């Protein structure tokens, strides 16, 4: 097995196209006070494959280091000054509450001040919890810590209801959001059924990724049309949304539409002639697709004068992330926390934890921040949704070609002469 390295990443290659994208190796020495219970530990050479569906002749592909306690010792506990101690008593009941006891914000990321504080306080383990933007911030902090040569481990923990973090199977909070979204969809369905030609329109979170809308739709079975950012749609003309609404109302007498907040933004820009603006974190400020779409639907059928509709608009966007997590997310959160601590104690840094094909792994930051996880509209899950709702795909052949281009490229084997950007040295954290 061959190891190549520079300051950016560590690549280990083996036979049959085996590729391991690693974080830093364990630098710890044996601890004589450490009691080994073999059945609880993962093998130091265990890795998790990124792709598990392969052909007979497929190369082994990209792997990540498996998460879990190692057989070799861990760091001693560390102490930091002027911090709030999160003792078991303090955090005992926080899983029963929504929101975050640590607080959250947009913007305010000053890498120099953050790392100065870490250095001044003598902190040697940093756990950064949040979504894709937070993980990018964690990567920047990690690079600055490395540049200064500090003996600090930086671990990312994915926490976003949008499920837009790549590589991992899903992000913490996603299941809870999908579960809570059912309440809004059920309310819309009840309202729509109660009126002649009733339409229930529900807007859910999802700026760039439509996973919440898609999975909530599949779970509900009451939704007639789901609109997401990844799948363009149009309103007027043959095969458009207005035509489908009219057809479904004639067939069933009511319908439910679910839209992600980022769906149809190009239509809103054309209609409202809006100027692109950004929030404190640099994210594009979205127009309210729910209000816009509800008004356009009302205007269309008002002009037609062939059908009187009753439209009810429900916006539970922030409600679905402000509630306590459900049981499956509580278990998932525990596993993420344990994996992150095991990784930091074993000497790894610059990684995000999460399940890859059902096994928890340590994934280098650069793999987490290189792209966003999005619904692939040429994939089977979106096809299952179209089959469930019987809605049109709204896609032209050009849209399908573009969607295929955006799919994740096949795993590329790393040859012996790989570029310096694809290698990593074997620096260690010694505390």
UniProtKB/TrEMBL annotation:
Alphabetized InterPro entries for the sequence: ATP_PFK (IPR022953), PFKA (IPR050929), Phosphofructokinase_dom (IPR000023), PKF_sf (IPR035966), PyroP-dep_PFK_TP0108 (IPR012004)
Catalytic reaction list: beta-D-fructose 6-phosphate + ATP = beta-D-fructose 1,6-bisphosphate + ADP + H(+)
The keyword Magnesium appears for this protein: yes
GO cellular component, one term: cytoplasm
Superkingdom to which the source organism belongs: Eukaryota
Cofactor(s) recorded in Swiss-Prot or TrEMBL: Mg(2+)
UniProt name for this protein: Phosphofructokinase domain-containing protein
Naturally occurring in which organism (per UniProt): Nyssa sinensis
